Amino acid sequence: MNTMAFQTLRALADGAFHSGEDIARTLGVTRSAVWYGIRDLSGAGFAIEKVRGRGYRLEHAISLLDAASVQSALAADAQRIELEIREVVDSTNAQLMQRVGAGVRSGLVLVAEEQNAGRGRRGRAWHSGIGSALTFSLLWRFAQGARELAGLSLAVGLGLVRALRAAGAAGVQLKWPNDLVTPDGKLAGILIEVQGDVLGPSAAVIGIGLNVRPDPRMRAAIDQPVADLETIAGAPVDRNLLLAGLLREIVAVLDAFAAQGFAPLREEWQRFHVHQNRKVRLMLPDGNEVTGVACGVAEDGALLLDAGNGIVRHHSGEVSLRGVGVPA
Ligand code: BTN
Question: DSSP character for 89?
Fold first, then answer.
């Protein structure tokens, strides 16, 4: 979406009526610029009511990202986080990966209202609607080598579950290796990209995409069931408070991970494991698949699968329930 459309969205964000004239005056632009802004917002999928004599109104108020609100909710953790909010980027992960070598500090967080080339795991695209998701990446530096970061994505997933459960999403669980799921579908995904030496130091760009509001366009673009936080919580979600809550728990698990790796977090992770001790099918990267009981995860984050001939560690693959005698 272009800058004018974003400015118009900001002017309408509270869900109240605003006349075209008022919006133009507030933004310091012409009435016709506002008209184009409204047109582009409608084109982007926002439902806008127009009433003669009253002006325009967003059908649903929207909480836009605001650095000051996030910083104040971060409280003591604010010193450890440097927040950068952008309206549109290609991918927050791609942006931070380009900056790892430029010596930027550990704790830099890039949040975007819109990504036009969001990246998912396994080369997939990540789709999210404007204002209806949280899409951000956090750069974190480790003394450890890149190889020792196995298990990091599971640790981050646990941090997200802690924060979401504290925010009222009691039923959120983890699907190996690092999806957040509910019975309705996938709520959030994590993409970690690492740079650095095998022996250390290393840097991780931790990208998180979380669905906040129901968004029919986004659902249509995604080929799997989707869950969203507002439906789960049954109430509007303030994305700034949510982001602060997520960052605080992520920082806590990153500190634990930097000190002792995934091992001390493993038991808690298994408590939230949606497939713990269930029969699953694991699609392997080479196209083969194996069926067995998911016995949990190892200290390096590998999935422990008992396929009848002893427990085998799997470091990659996609878990599914299809074809194992239970609904997927
Ligand atoms: C997955 O496939 O489950 C991982 C999705 C990760 C998406 C997030 S959105 C913010 C960050 N920037 C990206 O381009 N991807 C991650």
Answer: E
> Which strands sit side by side in the sheet containing 279-283, from one edge to the other?
311-314, 303-306, 289-297, 279-283, 318-320
Task: Reply yes or no on whether 121 is catalytic.
Answer: yes
CATH code assigned at 145: 3.30.930.10
* 137 within ligand 1 shell (Cβ under 6 A): yes
User: Does 86 lie in the same domain as 190?
Assistant: yes
Cβ(182) to ligand 1 under 6 A?
A: no
Read off the pLDDT of residues 98-145 as tens digits, 9 standing for 90 and up.
999 898 999 999 999 999 999 999 899 999 889 889 999 999 999 999
Mutate to test the pocket of ligand 1, among 114, 153, 175, 208 (most ligand atoms within 8 A of CB): 208
Give the domain CATH number at 305: 2.30.30.100
The pTM score is: 0.94
